[in-house]
Amino acid sequence: MAEIRFHPGGLAIESRGVRVTLGDTQVLRGVDLHVPRGKIVALIGPNGSGKTTLLRCLLGLQKPDAGEIRLFGEHIGPEVLKRVGYVPQRLPLDRSFILSVREFLALRLPGTAGWFWQSHRRTDALLRDTLEGLDLDGILGRPLSGLSGGQLQRVLIASSLLTKPELLLLDEPTAGVDRPGEQSFYELITEVHRRHKLTVVLVSHDLSMVYRHASRVYALNGVICCEGTPEEVMSADSLKQAYGIHVTPYHHDHGPGHHHVH
Amino acid sequence: MFTEAYMQRAMVTALLLGPLCGLIGVFVTARRMAFFSDTISHAALAGIAVGFWLGFADPTLPMVAVSLGVAALMLWLKEKTDLLTDTIMALLLSGSVAFGIVVISLLKGFRGELHRYLFGDILSVGPQEVWLAFAVSAVVAAAVAVRLNALTLLTASEDLAHVSGIPVRRLNYAFVLVLTVVVALSIRLLGIILVTSLLVIPPAAARNIARNLRQQIVLAVLAGALGGGGGVALSYRFDLPCGPSIVLTSVALFLATLAASRLRQASGRALRSAP
């Protein structure tokens, strides 16, 4: 029998007993999370389940009151965050800030603000490899604040890929994207996952996406109340635990695999 | 027209501080910090009063010191209390102005001076102000050039900036420090009441016709130079208060770029709808 060893760097995400209290509410009540490397996984939970708070903890934006989080076996800090890409749901952009897509992407290129001094052609050449397959060529000159939800999402994914991350965290990636857009988003993520060989964590309240696209699902409701393959987690009992209400998976005109919470 | 030394000093200072305010203003406006800078400039009145009180011949130092103190207090209150940012700023703005006016009233003899600081005065630009403006412009322009990526990402999203390894807190404090020094220096020309306009109007004029951030930065710097230089010339030629002259020149620039952008849009539509 092969010897089973614990690799400190073997897990992409590892948390123990993470607790966070915001105001009077204990949002996270001891989260134990173990996310293996190299997979597409989903962190699901209803509104108020602490998804966003947990995500903020993983990104070092929120300090847990208790417990410990490690990414690739390291404590969260500037060093390990270099290996993490973050795709927020949206940007708090003011319309008066006329940052173009090209300029926004170029902010992540190494060196000192080349985009300001060099020609567009030179900047585009530096971006080309990462942008391949993301279908952004036509909108590089457009202002960031004028993009559709789907376009902005592709830009944010491209931006996070520019630093060559090993872990990609996406916050509610299908919010504000229509059904056809959702489909192409998942094709894109699958392609990005394959091409860049990274761990992808989708944080969402949308159960339907989990079913088809994640290889492992973590259901959060203050704690990780169930985890497993999508089929295991989607069984009514464990979902009921996660959402605290009755759930009937059923099929209708969205096509197979769309489960709705009632 | 530029034979008098005081006039040359005022013009050089305006041509340094106008572009500098345009550059910083692009980020001030995008980060919705116009009211913040207004609070800092009004806090300078308290600094000027303290300077008179302590017998400073030149109130620049107490002005910068008190403005920095109020800026720090503003950030501290924002972090430590649940008060709205607007509330904090209004409180500190009116508090500083009231304190400054009361002190100056008690001191007597300085009331005539007050007007110069409220509305700006080209006569008040001494040789040391020119050198100070030159030094600050050079340092700030270099700092912005070096940290342009970080500053831009911070403006787009603080969370993204943090995850990208940018020291968000430190950069925010540095930005407030720069803003305070630039505002305090510009008060000589523009006056306490109008100084924020040079941070807001040139970037707004640039925004009217720019298609990306690079264009906005370049055009805002140009608009700052035109507004500052043109305003000083106007002030000298017609014996007008300096601050309002700079502001009106800048507003005229803003209206011109607004008209240009409307015309461009209209002609674009006409071209598209043509058979």
Write the layout of secondary structure elements.
The complex is a heterodimer of chains A (262) and B (275).
Chain A: E1 11-22, E2 25-36, E3 40-44, H1 51-58, E4 66-71, E5 74-75, H2 78-81, E6 84-87, H3 101-106, H4 114-117, H5 120-131, H6 149-161, E7 167-171, H7 179-196, E8 199-204, H8 207-213, E9 216-220, E10 224-228, H9 230-234, H10 236-243, E11 247-248, E12 260-261
Parallel strand pairs in A: 3-8, 3-9, 6-7, 7-8
Antiparallel strand pairs in A: 1-2, 1-4, 4-5, 9-10, 11-12
Chain B: H1 5-30, H2 34-53, H3 60-80, H4 85-107, H5 111-119, H6 127-146, H7 148-156, H8 158-163, H9 168-190, H10 195-209, H11 213-238, H12 242-273
Summarize the structure.
With 262 residues, chain A is α/β, with parallel strands linked by helices. Helix content of chain A is 32%, strand content 25%.
Describe this structure in words.
The complex is a heterodimer of chains A (262) and B (275). Chain A has 262 residues and is of the alpha/beta class. Helix content of chain A is 32%, strand content 25%. Chain A contains ten helices and twelve strands. Chain A has helices at 51-58, 78-81, 101-106, 114-117, 120-131, 149-161, 179-196, 207-213, 230-234, 236-243; strands at residues 11-22, 25-36, 40-44, 66-71, 74-75, 84-87, 167-171, 199-204, 216-220, 224-228, 247-248, 260-261. A six-stranded mixed β-sheet of chain A has the order 6-7-8-3-9-10, with helices on both faces. Chain A has a four-stranded antiparallel β-sheet with strand order 2-1-4-5, with helices on one face. A two-stranded antiparallel ribbon of chain A has the order 11-12. In chain A, strand 9 (216-220) and strand 10 form a beta hairpin. The radius of gyration of chain A is 19 Å and the shape is globular. Residues 1-7 and 246-262 of chain A have low confidence and may be disordered. With 275 residues, chain B is mainly alpha-helical. Chain B has helices spanning 5-30, 34-53, 60-80, 85-107, 111-119, 127-146, 148-156, 158-163, 168-190, 195-209, 213-238, 242-273. In chain B, helix 3 packs antiparallel against helix 4. The longest helix of chain B is centred in the last third of the chain and has 32 residues, at 242-273.
